[in-house]
Amino acid sequence: MKAVIFVLATLLAVCVPTFGKQCSVTPVNIPKQWITMQQSCRSSMRRQIQMEVAASLQYLAMGAHFSRDGINRPGFAKLFFDAGSEEREHAMKLIDYLLMRGELDTNVTSLIQIRPPERKSWESGVDALEHALKMESEVTKSIRSVIIACESDPKFNDYHLVDYLTGEFLEEQYKGQRDLAGKASTLKKMLDRHSSLGEFIFDKKLLGMDI
């Protein structure tokens, strides 16, 4: 059995520590000709990943705010916790893309930098929805700036990445913005008719309840 492990380790170039000794891994030199992403495009992608992570943390703060006992809006909490998961998934997709393009051979850990959320409290559900809409608009604007950076040079136009961002991300962003704008508009109308119960009823509708 030990012989098989050593053979497999040798074939796969995996270091196997023995007799309490730590093994060292020698970096393997791989040709770089297949890595074609330009510096401006690469930097823009890294900044976009940071923005997606920051948006995810902000949504987590929003979900936690509406989960507080003194506020108790489970519908809003679920909405924002789900949004936080989506933003984290977006960051993971972009990291996977950079991996596919061979762009994560160095400074991998610098992709994830945790910063405190911009806000930690909101006056109302409308305030939170409008803040979310503003944040999504900024994320969309940032994605468009990545696209511009990646297609600005005709000689090095990164068609594949531009197509990926346009089809995979922008459409979802625009649909999400429209959904948030619709929710904010609906809530405002409900508050006009039911000033004391409007937000409570809307919160229940976010959970799928018919009141």
Q: How would the blueprint of this fold be written?
A:
Layout: H1 2-12, H2 39-67, H3 74-100, H4 125-151, H5 159-193, H6 198-206
Helix pairs in contact: 2-3, 2-4, 3-6, 4-5, 5-6
Structure commentary:
With 211 residues, the chain is mainly alpha-helical. The protein has 6 helices and no strands. The mean pLDDT is 85. InterPro entries: Ferritin (IPR001519), Ferritin-like_diiron (IPR009040), Ferritin_DPS_dom (IPR008331).
Which of globular, elongated, flat, extended, rod-shaped describes the shape? elongated
Terminal CA distance: 65 Å
* Share in helix: 55-70%
Write the H/E string, N to C: HHHHHH
The low-pLDDT segments are: none
The number of helices is 6
Strand content: under 5%
Classify the secondary structure makeup into a structural class: mainly alpha
Mean pLDDT: 85
Rg computed from alpha carbons, rounded to a whole number of angstroms: 23 Å
Overall number of strands? 0
Largest sheet: none
Short description:
The chain has 211 residues and is mostly helical. It is 65% helix and 0% strand. Belongs to the ferritin family.
Keywords:
211 residues; elongated; mainly alpha; 6 helices; single chain
